[in-house]
Amino acid sequence: MKANSISGTGMDKSETRTVLRRSILAFMLRSTAVLTAASLLVLELAGGEIAREFFLFSMPVIVLFSVFTAWRSELFRRPSGEAVERFEAANILTATRLFLVPPVIVALIHGMISWAVIMYCMSLATDVADGYVARRFRQETVFGLMLDPFCDIASTFAVVTWLWIVKAVPGWLYVLLIARYSEFFAGMIILKAMGKTPRLKATLPGKVAGVMQGTGIVALLLKQLSPDAMPVAWSIDYIIFPLMALAFLSVIFSQTWIGIEAAREERDWNFRR
Q: CB–CB of 155/100 below 8 Å?
């Protein structure tokens, strides 16, 4: 083994990154092939205009993601510092959640609510699966830690914004969502300026909030699909909206506490996905 090997397979740092970037390129090509096939399916089912938007809105996300990933290849390392040579299954699942955002929005814009519900549920499934795969098969990486919350933000914010535009979500709840994400990014910037690293990990409030948030969004989408989807009208105002608000507030509290702990800590936190 070479003296400067960091990947555990005898390759040095430069060789490891080269292999990783090839893996990322292969992932981009496979993603493009899947998108092309899906676009052809949409062409058959919904027509050329929607198929074009489906492809043109999704392809830049795939390309930009792949370019950024290859550029920041140093983030592909284990908690122990060991470099990673492949774009692994856990990160593929997380990236899939990001890639589903444009198709969901295209479907919503064109009134294809049932398709949007299916794809959003697929997104929720990847949110559960990526963390399990990362822990079960020891595929935790710094990159995955950073990517996971960003994908959650992108998917949730996109769908809730559409629901707010069509007046399916009240303004006060939308403001609460914006406050949640604004606090997250502001806190990260402040901690970065302080030279601190927050311990981003799965927490009980985050898990509970994720379930309530996802369930609420699916229920609201089903309400758009069919006004009779909910048993009674008051279930939206008096059950779903309060639960979603409670979910947002619990995450705001959790984020605040994690930020305070990180600011007080003398050393960087270890991380878990």
A: yes
77 phi and psi, to 5 degrees? Answer: -145, 155
Going by the DSSP 8-state scheme, the letter that residue 66 receives in this structure is: H
Nearest to 214 by CA among 156, 170, 166, 175: 156
Q: Which residue(s) pair with 83 in the sheet?
A: 77
End-to-end CA distance of the chain: 30
- Residue with tokens 């550029």, as numbered in its chain: 71
**Residue 88's closest CA among 149, 161, 38, 27?**
27
CB under 8 Å to 16, separation ≥6 — which residues? 6, 7, 9, 83, 84, 85
pLDDT in tens, 205-221: 677 788 889 999 999 99
Give kind and range of the element (H or E) at residue 256: helix 241-264
Q: What six digits make up the tokens of 11?
A: 């390759």
Question: What is the amino acid identity at position 81?
Answer: G
**Which residue's entry shows tokens 């929607």?**
50
Give the confidence band of 1 by pLDDT, cuts at 50, 70, 90.
Answer: very low
Task: Round to whole Å and give the CA distance between 214 and 236.
Answer: 14
Specify whether the backbone of 167 is left (phi greater than 0), alpha (psi in -120 to 50) or beta.
left
Model's pTM, two decimal places?
0.88
